[in-house]
Amino acid sequence: MGSRDTERFGRQAELVAVAESARIGFEKAALYPSISLSGNFGYLASDWGQFDLSDVFMTTSQTWQVGPAVQWNILNYGQITNRVRAQDASFQAAIFAYQNTVLLAQREVEDGLSQFLQSQKRTQLQSRSADFAKQSLDLSVLQYREGIVDFTTVLTAQQDLLNAQDLLVQATGDTPQGLILTYRALGGGWQIREGQNFVPPEVQEVMTNRTDWGNILTPVDMLRPTAPGLPAAEDVSPRVRAPEW
Asked: Are 91 and 21 spatial neighbours (Cβ–Cβ below 8 Å)?
């Protein structure tokens, strides 16, 4: 699963957990009685042919009725309670799914940071190893010219230098890759999400015209997994250019 997929599924799992939590309240509402008030108003006349418009305002001709209605599924208490329990279990499962997604995202951040820091150390060590291999090759060439060693020793020193340089290139390439993986796991590299809503304004307008969402579409605080801070600029190898955020 890529970093962008983890970020998207993390938001999806969070919204699913919120929806499952709201459904618990919906199921619990069935445990309580529903009270409504209804009424009607009408006019009575014994002879429609003798009806006059002024008769409408006569109290003897008016009829009205007002009364409450109570509905309570008390006989289905056990069934409703089990529905509430089932919904609570679904909510707990959604919480676990969200927590698992957060842990996966945090692991990706830690993996990226680990690769970035470890590759920096390997780069330093491989750079020293390549320098020593170069010195060994120069010494072997001098010894060969003086007739102290044969050309096989020179070839071996050249091979050692090539191997050291190859490992140096690999370590150097792993450094920016680790930095990129870290930024991707943190949601960076495409757009800055701070101060922006998850739902675009035009979509919010359409949804608000259809349903009263309150402040759900524009949450103030959204919990996000914390991750260790990135290395300071002075700690970054000169071979890596820190993003200008």
From this structure: yes
